[in-house]
Amino acid sequence: MLKGLAITPPIIGRISIGKVVEKNGKRLPEKDDQFTINSQVQGREGWVAHPLDEGLRKDQGGKIRSIPIRLLFNDPDLNFRAEYSFFDRLTGRPLCVGNGEQCKRVTDSGIQPLPCPSPEACPVAEGKQCKPYGRLNVVIGDDDPLGSFVFRTTGFNSIRTLAARLHYFKAISGNKLACLPLELRLRGKSTTQSHRAPIYYVDITVRAGMALEEALAQARQTQAARVEAGFDQQALDEAARLGFANGTFEESADEGDAVMEEFYGTEGADKATATAKPNSNLTKRLERLAN
């Protein structure tokens, strides 16, 4: 295994709330009140829709508000990873990633472990450049049992809700999280900060029309069938844990465009690039703040 390269769950598609639109010659993300399921391929009009998108859209009257899923792992923190993250706006590569206590930061002297005071108290995070950043991997359909769709978010509502739900479902199912029949569900709320306009976030619930007790019974049956077939869930979780730990950062260089779209929101990659300082100057400033 190549050292320094995080081995992440295989991704075959992306889930987002919204889409990328063309405005004044620039591709910018636009928030929406529905899910979009995209492939890993981009065209001139943006990300190409995954075949599953059309089917779910027809079933739900044109707008996807829920997606039936299952999870790859029993450990909630393997399915959903969230950290405070600061990315280089030129390349989309992570420069500093922390959990509110410790961080890993890129400097001219290499990657250094440093205290992480959280974005509100960190001088590196000035200008809202550091944000909470979560990545959720889920399985949709039965075609590829180990291929996942990734949902990326910087929203506090989605991050808090997803983290809570995953830990609760693990607890009540007796560590059978990967066997539960679940669904992603879009929820809306209004706040004073949103000027009473609805904002949307992602939740996880049991499948529509299914009581919690039914979902738990199905999880027990699924686990028993997997054990009988020789499926080793514990070994799969451990393999994923070792894969994540193999790299310093989860994001790779070729994911820069996706990071720009999800992380910087309506600013977009083009605007971020136009206003960014050279990468060498940024890393020098990070190093001065670290010393």
From TrEMBL:
Pfam families: Gp3-like. Residues 270-291 are annotated as: Disordered. InterPro entries: Gp3-like. This is Hydrolase or metal-binding protein. It comes from Denitratisoma oestradiolicum.
